[in-house]
Predict the structure.
Amino acid sequence: MSISPNIPSPQESYAYESSGTPRWIAVLFGLVIAALAVVVYFGYSTQARLSQDLGRQQEQNRILSAQLDQANSRIADLKSQVEITTQRMGLTQAELAKAKSRAEDIRKEQQASDQELTSQIKASQEQIGAVATEVGGAKKDIEATKSDLEATKGKLERSMGDMNVMSGLIAHSRDDLEELRRRGDRNYYEFTLQKAKNSQRVGPVQMSLNRTDPKKSKYTITVIADDRTIEKKDKTSGEPVQFYVKGSARMAPYEIVVFDVGKNQITGYLATPKDSGGVAPAPAAPAAAATPAPTPDKP
């Protein structure tokens, strides 16, 4: 039986398969390279997602960091497999050590990058928390100031005077009086009037204290204005005591408001219109008399 000239003999087939690199090694190397490319791609994709998710919660960042660590471990494992493969392909030990060192450097660089991203996220969260705290503090200050203004506004109220004339804003304490001075609507003269024989000058008028009843917060005074003597009897602290002087009849009356009624003295203030219709102020008081508190000039 003759052998066909196109069919190689067993000796020729063996010689053909023995020449060059074995086919299974090339296939294995190709699979390893493909797997390495996939894993590397996966690692860079994970890192890109981590950069895009900086605003997420710290728990998510820890999860992504764990995924990166797993990817780094996989890369290291595959590089070890490459090392074994390259040994079979005849690479020197120096080249293998260099490749292994490079893989370790890449892993450390990725870990350092992960730590830096985590630190930046933490710092951003702390800054946001600090800003939120400052905003909250400023809001509380604004609310407190608003409450103080509302409280002061509530204290400064109008009341019907003893002449059945609606008064201006009434102060019930020295702090309220300072607020009225800042408003600058009228002239204000603060006084402490002692019970004495002689009258005491308060602003443009003369006043004398006749009697007091501290238990009932009542008092009786005499006011001398425009050569007229006006007695205000059994008045109560906080009550606007009103009277007119020349030129003020077409405007608001003069008002006396007492803060405190003591055994032999009263403390309060006299309020006069800014323009008294041409009424000249009385002469300056003696040194022993009470000095009226000046009203601040308007800006």
In short: The first strand starts at residue 186 and ends at 194.
